[in-house]
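Quick one:
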Amino acid sequence: MAQTNLPRVALYLQDAHPLRDGMHYAKYAEERGFEAVWQAESRLVRDAIVPMAAFAAVTERIKVGSGVINNWTRNIGLLAATFLTLDDLAPGRIICGIGAWWDPLARNVGIDRRKPLLAMRETIEVMRRLLRLERVTFHGEFHHVDDIELDVVHGRKEPRDVKIMIGATGPQMMEMTGEIADGAVLNYCVPPEYNDEALEQLERGARKAGRTLDDIDRPQLVVCSVHEDHDEAIRGAKMLLTQYLAQQPHIAKASGVDPAIVKQIQSILGWPATKEQIEHAMHLVPDDLVLRITATGTPDEARAKVMEYVKRGATCPILYPLGDPLLMIDTFATR
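Output:
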């Protein structure tokens, strides 16, 4: 198997595989030169923290990231303590990817996503200070803490190096990410040219903080359906896109998908969607859309598409394997 010329590449896992299989994929990705493994937390199915701990426990070098948790449902003290604990397990290897979640899911579990920019800014500020092992008093609109600190009695008492990346999609969140975060987790199911405007927004935010775009890491989620049969690869990608376009309107909007197609798909899929509903609706997703917003096809075709995202500013593709994860890892192996 030919090696890719990508300097950095990462693996993305969601809930498509048993957790113990994911542990195996994380170990294999590490052996094949992958920089990181990221665990999703999106639908109400698999949280990110337990898999992150599992991946960290069976690896030695690969970084482990949340891709992404939300900033609404975990108390800020617990959130900081969670990432301190993960860093205890894998010192210097933990990445906190965090996002503003999305409706209707957030609304359906009772979360009012008001002022998402301010809520995220407060979360990042307090969490950073706690991970620096500062004693913190903070009274904002969303977070209120009095004289708290991460109470490390046993173990490492030095500040923790946990990079905080915001999973931004909209322009205002993207700009704020450039200002306050270590990096942006750029979204998937978008065409490569989506990055052009995203980078402008990140750079605008970076300037506010006296930084440049080069100071902002830009890993990007990329759906990757690799198969030796081109048509089979497209079918695999359609299964995923059908569900995402119906249930995650922020991704559909960023993808530039015809709203009429989204409405048709939504009329067929329930919540949660069944496999039968997805198969019934997937013919509505055009082949050209699949090829435009995912890395789909033979290994050579998938590699070429991922390179388009890198050329448009992604610093580290985070590849979501559809089909055989081992084939995808081998396709993008750096050693």
